[in-house]
Amino acid sequence: RRIGSVCTGAMLLARAGLLDGRRATTHWNWCEVLIRRAPRARVDPDPIFVRDKNIYTSAGVTAGMDLALALVEEDHGSRLALQVARNLVLYLRRPGGQSQFSAALSLQLTDRKPLRELEAWVLDNLNKPLTVPVLAQRVAMSPRNFARVFTKELKTTPAKFVERLRVETARRRLEESQNSMESIASECGFGNVNSMRNVFQRALRIAPGQYRRHFRHVKNRPKARIKR
Fold this sequence. Notes:
Layout: E1 3-5, H1 10-15, E2 23-24, H2 31-37, E3 42-43, E4 49-52, E5 55-58, H3 63-76, H4 78-87, H5 103-108, H6 113-124, H7 132-138, H8 143-154, H9 158-176, H10 181-187, H11 193-204, H12 208-219
Parallel strand pairs: 1-5, 2-3
Antiparallel strand pairs: 4-5
């Protein structure tokens, strides 16, 4: 028997003691509350949904749709899950390991204008080495102060932020272009396909090739005929 929750429904599982010793998630804005209510759980604020044996928890309400599709795929395979996704007008079932947060959006939320403006420059230069000294020089800060301010403002390190931007950009390339894996890996600054694959597996729990195949399967579906 499987037990699952969507968004703050995880609080009910916590109250019942079902999250003790389990990895779980909820909407990022409620993770601190869940940690207090389920001190024995391993609360992860990042993924859109988490499976720990027979316990499933998901982030915000729309993440519940991704969780539901994952359950359909577990029981009936990816083909039926994709058919259900089409009926729900979803382009793609997002893997559970995908982050709740958009790197680009998180940078726009900061009050520091130099950091907000840094995003556009980084996106235009993903294929270049984007080290802390390089980024710090761009916003006229010392590397040490830049790393401190950046981490405080965005709750992540510059290196992790750049990696997430590269993943988000590579995802769009895989979805929208016919470019080769080698080309996308180079354009997004991964260096090579193996490096991109490793980062995708760590960030999204899915390989780039599998991600592209899933997306194309949905995009290339036959169009429904309209009776006149």
